[in-house]
Design goal:
Elements: E1 2-4, E2 8-14, H1 18-23, E3 39-44, E4 50-59, E5 62-68, H2 72-81, E6 89-92, E7 99-103, E8 111-112, E9 117-121, H3 125-130, H4 135-143, H5 181-190, E10 195-202, E11 210-213, E12 223-231, E13 234-242, E14 250-252, E15 257-260
Antiparallel strand pairs: 1-7, 2-5, 2-6, 3-4, 4-5, 7-9, 8-9, 10-13, 10-15, 11-12, 11-14, 12-13, 14-15
Amino acid sequence: MIASLISRAIFRVSGSDAKEFLQGQLSNDIYSINEGEIQINAYCQHQGKVIALLWVFLIDKDFYISLPKELAELVNNRLNMFIMMSDVKIKDITSDMPQYGIIDQDCPGSYKLNERQSIFVGEAKDLEKHSHHESLWQSACIETSTPEVYLSTTEKFVPQMLNLDINESGVSFTKGCYPGQEVVARLHYLGKPKRRMYKFKGGDIAVGDELIVEDSKSLRASGTVIRGAKSDNEYFYLASIETDFKDDKITSHNGISLVRIKNV
């Protein structure tokens, strides 16, 4: 199945210092990226909160970054702040490089995101002709527990709240410094995340909506909706929730309930 990813932007990062520059900005080990695969990275601010999730991959010697369009300007401006005297060029090539999400099928030349999903970038008439609505991709991302950060949720999560530390899928704890690294590492080595990402189903709730658990003593909301999709007239979600209450009665502020999807 193929989905046209019209809501995603793409940057090309080139120059002799590009690898070292990204290594110092992002949460994962840029030096370990494998050809033909996408590496998920958190781009954090100094307090360890995730500004955006970036999908990084290599084409020849240049790095490419896929991210939601609504965060493109924010991320582009912030990355450019730190280039200084480095030989690094960042160019938004979204209009020249359409992106297609490939679900549960082989596609030569695509970049693997996980066992079920990959991305093809560039002009491809055959893919365009057979592409479906992007909602199919959103549903697949929920099924594969692939998190996302949007404008409504930027700087609301530390990587552990998005499960990026599990198997170091989006965070390397051996790579060295990046913005927010001390906070993220301290939680990993000295603490235990009180919130994790889980799958849910329920009524119509917006991404970024806060979630409430009656028995929680937290002064803040107990959770936040990370991403959502409608499939077969049902709504499915990824949400970060207090782990102690993940199977309790969870509602949005307007009373819509969510129920955790277990053993999936």
